[in-house]
Amino acid sequence: MKNSVFNPSQQQKSLSGKIVASFERISEVFKVLLWEKAKLSGLSPIQIQLLIFIAYHGPELCNVSHLAKEFNVTKPTISDAIKILTHKALIEKFPSVSDSRSYTIGLTEAGKTIVNETAGFTQPLEKQIEKLSITEQTTLFSQLSSIIFELQQNQILSVQRTCYGCRYFSQQNEQPFCKLLNSPLAQQDIRIDCPEFEASA
Amino acid sequence: MKNSVFNPSQQQKSLSGKIVASFERISEVFKVLLWEKAKLSGLSPIQIQLLIFIAYHGPELCNVSHLAKEFNVTKPTISDAIKILTHKALIEKFPSVSDSRSYTIGLTEAGKTIVNETAGFTQPLEKQIEKLSITEQTTLFSQLSSIIFELQQNQILSVQRTCYGCRYFSQQNEQPFCKLLNSPLAQQDIRIDCPEFEASA
DNA sequence: AGGCTAAGTTAGTTGTCCTAATCAGTTAAT
DNA sequence: ATTAACTGATTAGGACAACTAACTTAGCCT
């Protein structure tokens, strides 16, 4: 049998493999925490994720095509979920002004209530992270954000909203800089999901 | 609307929140990479995960009850998946000697072939991690393993196979030590999934 | 022996997620 | 300006994941 990061007997030899295995465990945490909230609210994981995403992102990102890209599923999958959420009266459709085939999704009051109840599903994880010192958190974040940037560069993550891929981002003499805020960026200022993101040419 | 790690406008203020958001992105990578392999092999993500797990773990962990705990799903879910995998002739059932209600699952030759083809699904992620220096990887792993240990202590992750929770593990004067290997453990020696793991009393 | 617990299955339901096909509107190109 | 190509969204059909509830059978315990 080939080597693999999931082979405990081989895993030990490779540090990067052990990091992958650690990430896998943390992924499982997301799954578990999300399901917990899902059961409480009578919704499915993807339904909750959609509601949370819609709550915190502008209308230009809240249509079927973009949501499909965002969650790495096909459009019919999003279309199905939206049908259900509409039926449950948690979201509303607003026709697009520029394209009559398209529409934007917004939350209803009931939808906002659900978001308030569920958006904190990652809190138990956050609590453990807070146990690390600020210095540790800073280096951890710096390493994670560099991994994520690479993943985006390599098309493994399709959605781009980090500073590194933004048109307002520049890096001179190792110093990251945001041309929109017109200020240098420390490691901890780098954003994973920047509201002002605009893709670079 | 309440604060949330998924709110890009608020996210910036909290370092731990940004780390959570980063973990969320990396979780998505697992999902994407696994689906890719799934489509190629004509199996579903959970089916592949089951096969990989069975390939690298002893018979005592390869029964319905444990697999359900391992993947944080109910027994019927595992039972269903096993039915399908058996039907596809990728696994075999071996009756348990100690308990006639139970059985152990093993891979068929066809199952092993699939594992060889799919177990490397995390490779693109591993490749990015390898771009970090060994020092960076060491501190990253140390921080990840401490987070994971805390998550297990707090029952958020139900399955325990890290050194920290093992009966053979001890820590004297900040020096981790394995009483089975009878040797001190450096940060990079800590195991996330140790084959010799035995729960401490 | 009787009652509790545990291993696994079955039945029934809801919803995810896919592919393929369809419809309608937008854009580009001759 | 009209056709061709593309794109946004939906529908249809199917495999399967995930749940709960109820059941069967076997082990355990006092």
Automatic annotation (TrEMBL), chains A, B:
Q: Name one Pfam family in it.
A: MarR_2
**SMART domains attached to this UniProt entry:** HTH_MARR (SM00347)
What the entry lists under Gene3D superfamilies is as follows: Winged helix-like DNA-binding domain superfamily/Winged helix DNA-binding domain (1.10.10.10)
- InterPro entries found in the cross-reference section: HTH_MarR-typ (IPR000835), MarR/SlyA-like (IPR039422), WH-like_DNA-bd_sf (IPR036388), WH_DNA-bd_sf (IPR036390)
Taxonomic source organism: Jiulongibacter sediminis
Q: Where is the HTH marR-type domain?
A: 16-149
One GO biological process this protein is involved in is:
response to stress
**Protein name, UniProt field:** MarR family transcriptional regulator
One MF term from GO for this chain?
DNA-binding transcription factor activity
Q: Which domain of life is it from?
A: Bacteria
